[in-house]
C-alpha cells in the first residue's frame, strides 16, 4: 500500500525504498538518533538499571548482522539454517587467528573472516541442493555440533577449550577500544548490512531467492538456476555471519567455542519469525525487540527474586531462563504468526484508508 | 431430497462467491450444474458437502436441507454420515495407499463389515479395471483409472447423494464416455441421486434429467435436460453450436446483449 | 572380536529402544505433517512421572504404569489442543520454533518440579546379566529391547490393517479429501498425538530402566531427530532400521574412536555426523518416501 497521494510516475520511483519527504525526514531523524544514542546513554546506560546501554546496542548491532544473513538464506531463500552461530564462530576464529598469529590488520581480517565463513557455509549449503524441510534443518544443525568439536580439538590453532584472546580492532592506528568507538564501528557495519540486505531482497537475485522459497520447481521451470542461487544464498548469508563473528571477536576480545550455542541458533530464527519472515525491516524489528526483551528479563529477574523471596532459587532460575523464554516464543507465534512487521503493515494500511476501510 | 434455498456464500467473509442460489436434487435423479470457470459450481458443491470450511468459506444466508436435516452449519463428517459424498475435482487420490485401501477408506463412516465387503465387490463390478489393480499403489494409476477409483471410493460410502465435481477433467473423450455411462448405471441401479458439475455440457446433459446453468455466482437458467439442450443460449455459450454459416463478431449486438443479460 | 561382538550386541539392544522412541515422532509426522521438537522432553517427562509414581508414591508397578499412561495421554491432548491444532498448515519454521518453545517450557518445568539431581530408577525388569561366551549382556537391556520391538511391530500392524490406522495414513496425504470421505481430521490429530505421547512415555520408562532418571534424557530428542531423519521421516520401518543402526554406530564410536586421544567426545556428535553423511547420499533418508511434487 502506497502513501496516499503518491503515484509512481517512473520505474525509479516505483523501486524507491524511501518514497516521500516525510519518510526521508523520519529516516534522517532516526540516523541522527542512532548517532546521538551513545552520548545520551553514557557509560552506565539509562532507564531501569541501565537497560538502554551502549553495550546492549553493540550486541544488537552484531546480532542484527548475523540475523540479516539468516534472513537472506532462510527468510528469502527458504533454506532453513540452524547453523548461523557456528558460521559466526568461524568468522570470529578466522579473524582472531589472523590478527593474533599473523598480525593482519583489522580490515583485512574482517574481510577474510567473512569470506572464509562464506566458503565454509557453502560446504554446509551443499546438502541444501538435495535436501528440503526438516532434512535440511538437521543437516545445518550438524554444523552446530561439528564446528565446536573441531574448534576444541585443534588446540594449536584455536587455543581449544582455553579460548583465544583477540586484540581490539584498529584501523590505521586508531583503536576501537571503548564502547562508544566500538558502537560506531558496529553501527557502520550494521547500516551497511541493512542496505545490502534490502537491496538484495528487491533485486533480481532476491526475486530468484523468493521464487526458490515459494516453489523451487516452478522457479526452475522459469529458468532460475536453483543450485546456483541456493549456494549464493548460503554464501551471502554466511558472509554476514562471518562479519558478525569477526566484530564479536574484536568486541569481547576473548572467544571460546562455548559462546556460540545451539540456543543462539534457535533464538536467531526466533528473531526472524517474530520480526517477520523474509522482511528486512521485520528482521531489524525482531532483533531489537527480542534482544531488548532478553535484556529486560535479566534486569528484572533479580528484582522479582527480591520481591518474592519464598521461591527457591533453582525453581526461580528454571522459570526465568527456560520457561519464560519458551512461553515468550509460543505466545508470539500464536498471537502474531506473520511477525511484528505484518502487524505494522496492517496498521499502516488501516490508517491510510481510514475512515473508509475499503 | 436435497434443497438449497437462496444461499449466499462468502470466502474469508469478503469474497462473495454465491448469491441467492436455489436448487433441488430430487431422490434418484441426475442433476447437471453447468457454467463457465468461476461461476460458483464447485463452491455450490462444497457448500453442500461442508468442505467450504477448509477454504475459509461459509454459508451466510439461506439454508440447505437434506432429508429433513438442515446441513449448512454441519461438520463435513456428519454430512457424510447423512449420506452425501463429494467426489472432489482433480482426482484427490491417496497416492501412497493401494487401490483397495483407497476404496476401503471410502467406507470409513460405515461399520457393517459384511456389507462393506459386498460393496467392494460391487465397486469392482462397476470398475473391472480396478479389480486387476487392487494391490497397486494408487499413485501409479493412469488418470482415467484414478478418476474411476475416486468415484468408486465415493460409492463405497453407500451415499444417497453423490456430488461429482468435473469427472471428465483431463480425460480422453472415450474415457469420458465410459465414465459417464457408469455414472448413469450407478444412478439407475443403486438409486443414488447425483449432482454433477461439468464443463462438458454436452455429455452432462446427455445423462442428466434436469439442469441448472450458473454465471457469476447465480443460477441464470434451469430446466429439463432436453429443454436446455435445445435452448439457443445454452447451445451457443456452452455447447459451442451456433446457427451454421453465420460468422460471429463482437459487433453482433444481439449476441452481446444476450450475454450481458446473463452476466448482470 | 569379543569386544566387537559385545559392542555390536549392546548397540543393537540400545538401538531397539531408540527405534521405539523414534516411531512416535514418525507417527505425528505421518498424521499431520507436523513434527515435535519437544519430543525428547516428553520422553523425559514419562520417565520422571513413572519414577515419581513408583519411587515417591510407592504405587504398585502396574498402577504406576497406568498413572504414567494417563498423564501421557493428557499431555498429548493438551499440547495438540493448545498449540498444534491451529498450526497444522503453518510453515515449517513456525512449527520448529513453536515446538522448541514447548521444549523449553517442559524442560523448565521438570527442573522446577524435580530439580537437577539424577535418580536411580527402580528395577522393573529383572537385573543381572546373560552370558554368551565372553559376551555379557545386561538382562534389562534385553527385556527393554524386546518390549520396544514388540511395540513397534504392533504399531505397524495398526497402521497397515486397522481402520483408524488407514484413516491416519489417508489424512496424512490429503486432509481435504480425507474430510470429504467423513474422516474427522481433528480426531486424527488427537489420535496421533496421544499415540506419540504414549510411545514417548513408554520409551522414557525403558530408557530410565537402562540409564536412570536424569535431565540427560532430553538428549533423546536430538537422538530421535537424527534417527528419524536417517531412517526417512515418514517411515516406521526406516525408524526401526535407523534406530538400531544408530545404536550400533554410537556404541562403536564410543568403544573404538574414543580410545584415540584426539577424538575424545566424538560419541556425542557421531549420530549427527552419520546422519549428515547418509543424507548426502540419500536425501530422503534410508527409507523415506520421495515426495512427488507437481507444480
Report the CATH C-level class of chain A.
Mainly Alpha
Contiguous low-pLDDT stretches of chain A (5 residues minimum) are none
Radius of gyration of chain A: 21 Å
Arrangement of strands in the largest sheet of chain A: 1-4
Give the largest interface pair and sizes.
A-C, 47 and 49 residues
Q: How many helix segments of chain A?
A: 14
Main sheet of chain A, how many strands, which sense, barrel?
2 strands, antiparallel
Question: Helix/strand/pairing class of chain C, anyone?
Answer: mainly alpha
DSSP strand (E) fraction of chain A? under 5%
User: What structural class do helix, strand and pairing data of chain A support?
Assistant: mainly alpha
**Uncertain residue segments of chain C:** none
Mean pLDDT of chain A: 82
Number of strands of chain A: 4
Radius of gyration of chain C: 19 Å
State the distance separating the first and last CA atoms of chain C. Answer: 54 Å
Report on the structure:
Chain A is mostly helical. Chain A has one domain (49-353): ABC transporter involved in vitamin B12 uptake, BtuC (Orthogonal Bundle). In chain A, 72% of the residues lie in helices and 2% in strands. The longest helix of chain A has 28 residues, at 280-307. The radius of gyration of chain A is 21 Å and the shape is globular. With 264 residues, chain B is an alpha/beta fold. Chain B has a domain at 2-94 and 158-230: P-loop containing nucleotide triphosphate hydrolases (Rossmann fold). Chain B is 39% helix and 25% strand. Chain B has helices at residues 41-49, 76-82, 99-106, 113-126, 128-132, 143-155, 173-190, 201-207, 225-230, 232-237, 253-263; strands at 2-11, 15-25, 30-35, 57-66, 69-70, 84-87, 161-165, 193-198, 210-215, 218-224. Chain B has a six-stranded mixed beta sheet with strand order 6-7-8-3-9-10, with helices on both faces. In chain B, strand 7, helix 7 and strand 8 (193-198) form a beta-alpha-beta unit. In chain B, helix 3 (99-106) runs parallel beside helix 6. The radius of gyration of chain B is 19 Å and the shape is globular. Chain C has eleven helices and two strands; from the N terminus they run ααααββααααααα. The mean pLDDT of chain C is 83. Chain C is mainly α. Helix content of chain C is 72%, strand content 3%. Chain C has a domain at 20-218. Chain B binds chain C through residues 49, 51, 54, 75-77, 80-81, 85-88, 92-97, 101-102, 104-106, 108-109, 139, 153-154, 157, and chain C through 163, 166-167, 169-170, 173-184, 289, 292.
Amino acid at each position: 500500500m502506497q502513501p496516499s497521494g503518491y503515484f509512481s510516475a517512473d520505474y525509479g520511483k516505483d523501486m524507491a525504498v524511501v518514497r516521500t519527504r516525510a519518510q526521508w525526514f523520519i529516516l534522517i531523524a532516526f540516523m541522527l538518533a542512532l548517532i546521538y544514542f551513545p552520548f545520551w546513554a553514557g557509560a552506565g546506560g539509562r532507564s531501569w538499571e541501565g537497560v538502554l546501554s551502549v553495550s546492549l546496542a553493540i550486541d544488537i548491532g552484531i546480532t542484527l548482522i548475523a540475523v540479516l544473513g539468516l534472513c537472506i538464506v532462510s527468510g528469502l531463500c527458504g533454506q532453513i539454517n540452524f547453523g548461523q552461530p557456528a558460521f559466526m564462530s568461524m568468522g570470529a576464529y578466522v579473524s582472531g587467528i589472523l590478527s593474533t598469529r599473523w598480525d593482519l590488520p583489522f580490515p583485512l581480517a574482517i574481510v577474510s573472516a567473512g569470506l572464509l565463513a562464506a566458503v565454509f557455509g557453502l560446504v554446509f549449503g551443499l546438502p541444501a541442493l538435495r535436501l528440503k524441510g526438516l532434512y535440511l534443518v538437521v543437516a545445518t544443525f550438524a554444523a552446530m555440533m561439528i564446528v565446536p568439536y573441531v574448534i576444541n580439538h585443534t588446540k594449536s590453532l584455536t587455543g581449544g577449550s582455553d579460548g583465544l584472546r583477540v586484540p581490539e580492532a584498529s584501523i590505521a592506528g586508531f583503536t576501537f577500544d571503548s564502547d562508544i568507538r566500538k558502537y560506531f564501528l558496529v553501527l557502520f557495519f550494521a547500516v551497511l548490512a541493512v542496505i545490502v540486505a534490502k537491496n538484495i531482497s528487491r533485486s533480481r537475485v532476491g526475486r530468484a531467492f523468493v521464487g526458490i522459497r515459494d516453489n523451487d520447481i516452478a522457479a526452475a521451470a522459469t529458468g532460475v538456476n536453483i543450485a546456483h542461487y541456493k549456494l549464493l544464498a548460503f554464501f551471502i548469508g554466511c558472509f554476514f555471519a562471518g562479519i558478525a563473528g569477526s566484530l564479536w571477536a574484536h568486541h569481547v576480545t576473548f572467544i571460546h567455542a562455548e559462546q556460540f550455542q545451539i540456543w543462539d541458533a534457535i533464538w536467531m530464527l526466533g528473531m526472524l519469525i517474530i520480526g517477520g519472515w523474509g522482511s528486512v525491516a521485520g528482521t531489524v524489528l525482531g532483533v531489537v525487540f527480542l534482544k531488548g526483551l532478553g535484556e529486560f528479563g535479566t534486569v528484572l529477574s533479580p528484582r522479582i527474586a527480591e520481591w518474592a523471596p519464598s521461591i527457591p532459587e533453582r525453581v526461580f532460575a528454571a522459570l526465568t531462563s527456560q520457561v519464560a523464554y519458551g512461553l515468550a516464543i509460543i505466545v508470539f507465534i500464536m498471537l502474531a504468526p506473520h511477525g511484528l512487521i505484518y502487524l505494522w503493515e496492517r496498521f499502516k494500511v488501516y490508517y491510510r484508508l481510514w475512515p473508509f476501510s475499503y | 431430497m436435497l434443497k438449497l434455498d437462496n444461499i449466499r456464500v462468502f470466502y474469508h467473509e469478503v469474497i462473495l462467491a454465491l448469491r441467492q442460489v436455489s436448487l433441488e436434487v430430487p431422490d434418484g435423479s441426475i442433476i447437471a450444474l453447468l457454467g463457465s470457470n468461476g461461476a460458483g459450481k464447485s463452491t455450490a458443491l462444497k457448500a453442500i458437502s461442508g468442505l467450504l470450511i477448509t477454504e475459509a468459506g461459509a454459508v451466510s444466508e439461506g439454508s440447505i436441507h437434506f432429508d429433513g436435516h438442515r446441513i449448512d452449519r454441519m461438520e463435513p463428517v456428519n454430512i457424510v454420515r447423512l449420506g452425501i459424498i463429494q467426489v472432489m475435482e482433480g482426482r484427490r487420490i491417496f497416492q501412497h495407499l493401494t487401490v483397495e485401501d483407497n476404496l476401503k477408506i471410502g467406507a470409513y463412516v460405515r461399520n457393517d463389515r459384511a456389507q462393506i465387503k459386498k460393496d467392494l465387490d460391487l465397486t469392482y463390478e462397476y470398475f473391472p479395471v480396478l479389480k486387476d489393480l487392487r494391490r497397486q499403489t494408487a499413485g501409479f494409476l493412469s488418470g482415467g483409472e484414478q478418476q474411476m477409483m475416486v468415484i468408486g471410493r465415493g460409492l463405497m460410502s453407500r451415499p444417497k447423494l453423490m456430488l461429482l465435481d468435473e469427472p471428465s477433467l483431463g480425460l480422453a473423450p472415450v474415457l469420458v464416455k465410459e465414465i459417464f455411462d457408469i455414472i448413469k448405471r450407478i444412478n439407475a441401479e443403486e438409486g443414488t441421486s447425483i449432482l454433477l458439475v461439468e464443463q462438458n455440457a454436452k455429455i452432462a446433459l446427455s445423462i442428466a434429467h434436469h439442469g441448472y446453468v450458473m454465471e457469476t455466482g447465480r443460477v441464470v437458467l434451469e430446466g429439463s435436460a432436453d429443454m436446455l439442450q435445445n435452448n439457443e443460449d445454452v447451445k451457443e455459450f456452452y455447447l459451442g453450436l451456433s446457427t451454421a454459416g453465420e460468422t460471429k463478431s463482437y459487433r453482433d449486438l444481439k449476441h452481446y446483449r444476450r450475454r450481458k443479460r446473463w452476466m448482470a | 572380536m569379543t569386544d566387537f561382538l559385545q559392542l555390536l550386541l549392546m548397540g543393537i539392544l540400545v538401538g531397539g529402544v531408540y527405534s521405539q522412541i523414534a516411531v512416535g515422532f514418525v507417527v505425528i509426522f505421518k498424521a499431520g505433517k507436523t513434527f515435535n521438537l519437544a519430543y525428547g522432553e516428553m520422553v523425559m517427562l514419562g520417565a520422571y512421572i513413572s519414577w515419581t509414581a513408583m519411587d515417591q508414591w510407592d504405587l504398585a508397578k502396574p498402577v504406576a504404569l497406568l498413572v504414567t499412561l494417563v498423564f501421557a495421554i493428557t499431555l498429548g491432548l493438551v499440547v495438540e489442543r493448545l498449540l498444534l491444532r491451529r498450526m497444522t498448515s503453518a510453515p515449517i519454521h513456525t512449527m520448529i520454533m513453536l515446538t522448541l518453545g514447548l521444549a523449553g517450557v517442559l524442560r523448565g518445568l521438570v527442573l522446577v518440579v524435580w530439580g537437577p539431581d539424577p535418580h536411580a530408577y527402580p528395577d522393573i525388569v529383572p537385573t543381572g546379566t546373560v552370558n554368551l561366551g565372553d559376551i555379557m549382556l545386561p538382562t534389562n537391556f534385553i527385556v527393554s529391547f524386546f518390549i520396544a520391538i514388540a511395540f513397534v511391530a504392533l504399531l505397524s500392524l495398526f497402521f497397515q490393517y486397522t481402520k483408524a490406522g488407514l484413516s491416519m495414513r489417508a489424512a496424512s496425504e490429503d486432509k481435504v479429501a480425507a474430510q470429504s470421505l467423513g474422516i474427522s481430521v481433528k480426531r486424527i490429530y488427537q489420535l496421533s498425538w496421544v499415540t506419540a505421547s504414549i510411545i514417548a512415555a513408554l520409551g522414557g520408562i525403558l530408557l530410565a530402566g537402562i540409564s536412570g532418571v536424569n535431565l540427560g534424557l532430553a538428549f533423546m530428542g536430538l537422538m530421535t531427530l537424527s534417527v528419524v531423519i536417517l531412517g526417512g521421516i515418514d517411515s516406521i520401518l526406516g525408524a526401526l532400521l535407523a534406530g538400531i543402526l544408530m545404536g550400533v554406530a554410537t556404541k562403536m564410536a564410543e568403544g573404538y574412536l574414543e580410545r584415540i586421544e584426539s577424538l575424545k567426545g566424538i560419541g556425542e556428535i557421531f549420530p549427527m555426523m552419520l546422519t549428515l553423511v547418509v543424507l548426502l547420499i540419500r536425501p530422503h533418508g534410508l527409507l523415506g518416501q520421495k515426495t512427488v511434487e507437481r507444480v
